[in-house]
């Protein structure tokens, strides 16, 4: 039975049509722009908001001052929206110098709007009367900089999440793109510790006869503990968890900013229903990313590593091969099964759009075990045998088409989501007859 593919890339990288070198450089430019935008945004937040607020709360010197007068300042932007700024003039001494400054908190001192609620601003003014003596804090490096209130704004850290997520996403993508730019698929494999595909030919000359059959060097370079080779996993659970975390932080951080604006408007008695309607689907998506992250966390922490070993490689149609399955962790297992699957992918142009179609064309269960316990002291291990049907299409990879074979381990354990882990294999064309290689 066919199943939808998981939304993550395969171990051998992204599939693209057209020039792969150009695609890598375009990808590098996009991720570089995201990285630089994140850095610029973070620096701007640190310089204009985080650092001044931290200095006010940690380095400003306390002294006494006298209120000379208080007034309400109205600020209007280009759209005509009105914001209010409580401005309190105070007199204080630093050493032998008397200073008279208009201030309230650091935002007011910098000329930024304090609130769009007039009642809130007037309530602040009501706390200060001319001639009143109170406490203020001044900058020891520049005594004319003074505030009447010190506090940390929690919403600042919500804004910081966004550029941090941009830096993580952009920086990671940029490193990947630069490492792979200008390299062939085979050289990209070599960067992971493999030999060059075109520098090593197998004994049957399969690579020379069929250059679009993927190399199996990424499989045969890792010896197994029991059988000949340990199969690589397509996507590490740890990377999936990290990706889920970055997505969760980024989307939740952006959404939380809008949610704070909506809540503030409702509490002030001036709800913005258009903004509320806009935020509602963002909240649903944010909850979805949180659920996805928690699900990956449960799978990663609750289900131990899965290992597959195979006796021979590459695989030839019509022949039988032995596989060792090993599952670790303290688990109450509902079932574990191994599937042999083949996926077909085609990339094509439709007008000005590039489309990619994926389809599961073969799917067969080769192993299943139900209702058993796994001890943390001894992993579950069992063996099975499988055969690629005679006459099946071999593994194939070009710019626009791909045939990929894999062994898939699926399982369900108590108190954990079901999990699926994929291990690519290479199915070679039928063995050439002796004397014709």
Structure description:
With 437 residues, the chain is α+β, with helices and mostly antiparallel strands. The chain folds into two domains: 20-32 and 165-425, Sandwich (Immunoglobulin-like); 61-149, no CATH class. It contains nine helices and 14 strands. It has helices at 20-58, 106-109, 118-125, 155-180, 185-191, 206-209, 217-220, 237-267, 273-302, and strands spanning 61-76, 82-94, 97-103, 133-139, 142-147, 229-230, 306-310, 320-327, 331-350, 353-374, 380-387, 396-397, 401-413, 419-425. Strands 3-2-1-4-5 form a five-stranded antiparallel sheet. Strands 9, 10, 12, 13 and 14 form a five-stranded antiparallel sheet that branches. It has a four-stranded antiparallel sheet with strand order 6-7-8-11, with no helix packed on it. β4 (133-139) and β5 (142-147) form a beta hairpin. The longest helix has 39 residues, at 20-58. The protein is elongated and about 95 Å long. Residues 1-19, 183-187 and 189-206 have low confidence and may be disordered.
Topology:
Blueprint: H1 20-58, E1 61-76, E2 82-94, E3 97-103, H2 106-109, H3 118-125, E4 133-139, E5 142-147, H4 155-180, H5 185-191, H6 206-209, H7 217-220, E6 229-230, H8 237-267, H9 273-302, E7 306-310, E8 320-327, E9 331-350, E10 353-374, E11 380-387, E12 396-397, E13 401-413, E14 419-425
Antiparallel strand pairs: 1-2, 1-4, 2-3, 4-5, 6-7, 7-8, 8-11, 9-10, 9-13, 12-13, 13-14
Helix pairs in contact: 1-4, 4-8, 8-9
């Amino acid at each position: 039975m066919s199943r939808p593919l998981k939304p993550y890339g395969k171990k051998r990288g992204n599939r693209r049509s057209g020039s792969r070198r150009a695609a890598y450089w375009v990808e590098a430019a996009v991720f570089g722009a995201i990285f630089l935008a994140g850095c610029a945004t973070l620096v701007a937040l640190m310089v204009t908001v985080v650092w001044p607020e931290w200095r006010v709360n940690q380095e400003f010197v306390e002294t006494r001052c006298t209120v000379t007068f208080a007034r309400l300042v109205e600020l209007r932007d280009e759209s005509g929206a009105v914001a209010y700024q409580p401005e309190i003039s105070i007199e204080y001494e630093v050493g032998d110098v008397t200073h008279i400054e208009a201030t309230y908190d650091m935002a007011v001192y910098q000329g930024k709007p304090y609130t769009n609620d007039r009642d809130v601003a007037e309530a602040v003014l009501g706390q200060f009367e001319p001639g009143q003596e109170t406490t203020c804090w001044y900058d020891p490096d520049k005594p004319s900089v003074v505030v009447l209130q010190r506090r940390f704004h929690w919403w600042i850290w919500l804004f910081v999440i966004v550029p941090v997520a941009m830096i993580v996403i952009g920086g990671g993508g940029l490193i990947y793109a630069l490492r792979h730019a200008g390299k062939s698929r085979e050289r990209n494999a070599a960067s992971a510790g493999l030999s060059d595909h075109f520098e090593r030919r197998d004994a049957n000359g399969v690579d020379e006869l069929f250059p679009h059959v993927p190399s199996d060097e990424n499989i045969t370079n890792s010896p197994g503990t029991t059988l000949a080779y340990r199969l690589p996993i397509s996507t590490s659970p740890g990377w999936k968890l990290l990706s889920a975390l970055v997505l969760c932080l980024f989307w939740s951080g952006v959404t939380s900013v809008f949610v704070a604006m909506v809540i503030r408007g409702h509490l002030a008695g001036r709800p913005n229903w258009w903004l509320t309607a806009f935020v509602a689907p963002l909240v649903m998506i944010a909850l979805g990313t949180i659920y996805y992250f928690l699900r990956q966390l449960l799978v990663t922490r609750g289900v131990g590593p899965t290992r597959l070993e195979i006796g021979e490689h590459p695989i030839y149609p019509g022949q039988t091969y032995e596989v060792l399955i090993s599952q670790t962790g303290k688990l109450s297992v509902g079932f574990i099964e191994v599937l042999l699957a083949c996926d077909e992918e085609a990339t094509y142009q439709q007008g000005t759009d590039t489309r990619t179609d994926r389809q599961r064309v073969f799917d067969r269960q080769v192993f299943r075990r139900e209702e058993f316990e796994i001890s943390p002291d001894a992993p579950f291990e069992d063996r099975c045998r499988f055969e690629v049907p005679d006459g099946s299409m071999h593994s194939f990879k070009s710019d626009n088409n791909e045939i990929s074979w894999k062994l898939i381990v699926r399982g369900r354990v108590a108190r954990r989501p079901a999990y699926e882990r994929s291990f690519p294999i290479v199915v070679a064309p039928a063995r050439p007859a002796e004397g014709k290689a």
